[in-house]
Design goal:
The complex is a heterotrimer, with 2 copies of chain A (308 residues) and 1 copy of chain C (174 residues). With 308 residues, chain A is mainly beta. Chain A has no helices and 25 strands. Classes of the chains: A mainly beta (308), C mainly alpha (174).
Chain lengths: 308, 308, 174
Amino acid sequence: ECGYISLPAPIVRLGDPITASCIINQNCTKLGPESQIRWKLETELQPGGRQQHLPNGTLQSTITFPHFNHSRALLSCCLHWGNGLQILDQAELQAGYPPTTPHNLSCLLNLTTNSLMCQWEPGPNTHLSTHFTLKSFKSRGSCQTQEDSIPDCVPEDGQKHCSIPRKHLQLYQNMSIWVQAKNALGTSTSSKLCLVPMDVVKLEPPTLWALEPSPEVAPAQPGCLRLHWETWKPSLHIEQKCELRHQPQRGESSWNLVGALPSRSLQYELCGLLPSTAYTLQMRCTRWPLPGHWSDWSPRLELTTAQR
Amino acid sequence: ECGYISLPAPIVRLGDPITASCIINQNCTKLGPESQIRWKLETELQPGGRQQHLPNGTLQSTITFPHFNHSRALLSCCLHWGNGLQILDQAELQAGYPPTTPHNLSCLLNLTTNSLMCQWEPGPNTHLSTHFTLKSFKSRGSCQTQEDSIPDCVPEDGQKHCSIPRKHLQLYQNMSIWVQAKNALGTSTSSKLCLVPMDVVKLEPPTLWALEPSPEVAPAQPGCLRLHWETWKPSLHIEQKCELRHQPQRGESSWNLVGALPSRSLQYELCGLLPSTAYTLQMRCTRWPLPGHWSDWSPRLELTTAQR
Amino acid sequence: TALSPASSLPRSFLLKCLEQVRKIQADGAELQERLCATHKLCHPQELVLLGHSLGLPQASLSSCSSQALQLTGCLSQLHGGLVLYRGLLQALAGISPELAPTLDILQLDVTDLATNIWLQMEDLRSAPASQPTPGTAPTFASAFQRRAGGVLVVSKLQSFLELAYRVLRYLAEP
């Protein structure tokens, strides 16, 4: 090799010093006292290389950047030769920060994909390639002891969420979950969650319909609306309670809430409303009495109450 | 095993006869003279099973469907037992046609994906799972002899086209290409194409612009338009000729064609048009003098000629 | 097929070769642009010393000079040069993930042109019994050397193609 750059550490903390040496062999070219090693950062010539002729005839230059504040820069070792500079080697210098602790880790059990989807906030940019891994194990009680291991969940590049597939889950047993962030300058670990997958189930909203008047269904009284609803099909096996909210479409009145409704109703009459007024209604449900997350509110249903 | 169906041929031509036998072992149940094997096709009991007690104590029934015209049906072998029927084995019967010869095989070299895309027409539905494979080999002269083989190109399920990637192609040498169709009842092969990939290149349309009047470019004469165009960038290395077509936007006049234009023009004046009239212009190009396919027409350019 | 007066070569063969040379030049230019943009290796003159230590061979087109054009010798040198450069390009494998696709296409196009010329030599009964071997490829000891080698190899290839283009243009003159 003609010449090569050696770097004790190619990646340092932003603002820390970084030192590089370049060694040029005799077999590369006739090295005389006038031979001069020059350094370039990207395309800029850099002053300050300390050069010395070593006993074995090689030429060495060492340069230190006291406060290196480029997240990424190309360092070239060059030699004056003829009337120009010859590039003999290049090295990529990087600077950044060790990963901060990932936070706001939260998980939801998705019954459509049958997977536990966890997401987190990575913290400030480290300027370095940082890999996140969702780690977990099955446990009993309060997650103190590991029962069975679960394979690491590696998110797609740059994503801040990962989904643990159903085959690695025991839906009704405790599991400990945390996120590990790793880059060239260090590793950090989020605080641990201890949860039962089924207790963080998030349901899809129920479906809410108006009950059209028919031979079996008498038309609603003035100031009342006739409704029926059904929970999301994949959650039929889950005992749930639901909430209904309604507000007149016009004006600024806030939502009125009707709580603790059953997860399914063939016929429900909502009264105490203003007659011949257009209302917007929405419904959501949650697993109950066992724990779970509220679903989002269902799409808006717009109905008008009968005249007096 | 209690009982099992044996089928000489589970797949026959539509309308052909199909025969099945069912053999029931003694260890399945106490087989008396009154034991009766019954056949079901899907859910329909089928008359006509010929039953016999074999010397080794097993019971066998054979049924033949003279003209089987279901593309797919489930055959069940049952035994009267207690006051109902016991299902002992099932077999899937299929009927259809051998593949007809794939036809209208044509290929285009796509310079964007750098691949040779061939498409064909499969012929009538065979009612059977039929696999198409695009086969080819490199050759010299008129494709009589095979020089180098090329891996089979297997289209995505149900697709009637396949793309041979650049790394398997020699763009300037002959290759022989054909399609093979195969199902349980037979194989058929299309007629063979002998082509040079580059000679079936299909270019993307050129880009056509109006030349805005500027200090260097005098405004166009009445009844003239100033244009310039550029061929599609990935085809800059290909010698081409282009065609321009134009027609007044109003009225029913057909397209006027200006042929044999160069593949690139910084400044072109199109005259002989009606003054102060709105025109629609389009351009297309083809590899020339070497063979190739015409590109599609470029998007429409709408310009109005100067007043007299 | 119509022969070009300046040579006993089919005109379509020469037009195809000219098209292929233009394509390879375009591929090469793209690789040079990316090596400059991504790795700041923009001038082959800055890598002469490294080139000496890598010992990159050079292809000659002496039989193609306008003063002493010797057709079969010229075709053979064209083919030999392309085989040499294909070998050098193959030695650059692993240059970098971003450059790999461009390098692959460049290699395929160089191979296609070499094959085109070889088959024409066979048609002219001027092809030797066996194809020339690319010779020992240089070893690149680091990613930097592969990239610097890429700049040097492509710049030599471009010069080679410049000469080749002139010869083919002359041969294709009606």
